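Notes taken during the Thursday session

The instructor put the following on the board and asked us to keep it in front of us for the whole hour. The protein is SAM-dependent methyltransferase. We were told not to look anything up and to reason only from what is written here. First, the residues (417 in total):
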Amino acid sequence: MSEPLLRGLARMRSHLLDSDALVRAVASGRQKSGTPQWRRVELRYVDLKAGRHLQVTSYDEQQAHTANHAVGEPRQPSPARDAVDALLDEPFGNWHVETTTQSHQLRVTKKGEALVHTSDRSEALEASRGHDRGKERLLPEDDPLFRELGLTDAQGRLKPSRQAKYRQVEEFLRLLDTTVVEAVEKGHLRRPTEAEPLRVVDLGCGNAYLTFAAHRYLSHVRSLPVAITGVDVKEQSREHNSAVAGRLGADASFVVGTIADAQVDPAPEVVLALHACDTATDEALARAVAWGAPVVLAAPCCHHDVAAQLRRAPTPSPYAALTRHGILRERFADTLTDALRASLMRLAGYKVDVVQFVESQHTPRNTLLRATRTGSPVRGGTLRTEYDDLVATWGLTPRLAVLLGQDQQQDQQDAGA
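Then, after some discussion, the predicted C-alpha cells were revealed:
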C-alpha cells in the first residue's frame, strides 16, 4: 500500500471515529489489488440504551447485514475502532464520508494512489442518531409526495390500506440509490449538473408512484439535478400525472405511447420498468440497450411467453419433474425467463444483479433486474456458450433475444458452422 494511500485512509479514519461529527459514510467499489468482502458498506453512529454505537450496514449481493459496535472511551481500544480498522483494511475503491461541516471523498486510482477531495458545507448538517431502523425512511411519511399520491392523510399519517405501496416505494428507492450512487462513483454514469440533469425514463409508469418517488428522492435527498419522463399508453395517465407534477413542482414530463415506440429525446441515462406485463419488460430492456442507457432497473410482472413455449415443447430429459405439474411449470418459467433476460443483458455489455425487490408478503412479483453498462457487447466466450446451451436445451426463443437480434446472430453462427 502506497504512502499517499495510507495517509488518505488515516484521514478518513479520523473522521470515521469522530462519533460527534460523523453523519454518514459509504465505502464501495474495489481496488485493482483485490475485491472487498462486501459490495458496499454504510456507517453511522446511533444512540442505544447501552450508549453510543457505530452502526455498520454491510451489503452483499443479496441482502444487508447490520451490526452495532460500542464506541467506548476516547483513544482507547473499542469494538467501534476495531470495526473501522477492519473496513479500512478492505480494498474498497471509494470512501465517501459526510460530517456535520464537511464532505470528504477518497478514490483509489488504478495505480493504487489516493485522490482525496474535501469540501466545506455552506450550512452545518445535523447528525441523526436514531436507531429504529424500522422507522428510518428515505422519504418521511409526511413528505408532500405521499399526500399528493394518496398514501397518507392530511396529517401526513400513512393510511393502513396503503402500507404495501409505501413499502414498495421505500425498497425501490433503496435499490435506486445504491445503483445510481455506485454507477456515478465507478464512472459508469456521469455526474449530473444543473445544465445537464440526470435523464430518467419510467416505461409503463401508470399512476407514476415510483416515477415521482425517484424524482423526489434523487433531487431533494441526493441533491442531484434530475429530469424524468414517464411513458404510458393511456392519455388519462398523462393528464393525471402532469397535473401532479405541476402541484409538486417536479421536473417531470409524461408522454403517451407504447414502451416499444414512445418518443423520448434526448436518450435517457436511467431506465425504469416496474411491473411491465409479460414481454413489455423485454421491450423495455431492449429500448434501454438501444439507448445505451448506463443504468436499468426492471421489475418483471407476469411471464406468459416462456411459460407458453414450455407447454408447447417437449421437456428435455431429465427435467420432466420440473414441468409435469402446472404450478411448478409456471414458477420455473418465471425463473427461466429472468435468468435468460439477465444473460442477454450481460451479452449486451451490462453487469447484472437479480435481487429481491420487496418481501413476498407485500407482492408475489418481487424480483428486480439491476443492470449497469460496463463494457461492449459480448460476441463469444463462456457467457455466449452458456446462453446458447440453455435456450437450445429447452427449445426456447426469448422475446428479448428477438428484440436484440441475438436469435439472428445465433442462426448466422449455426449457418457458418
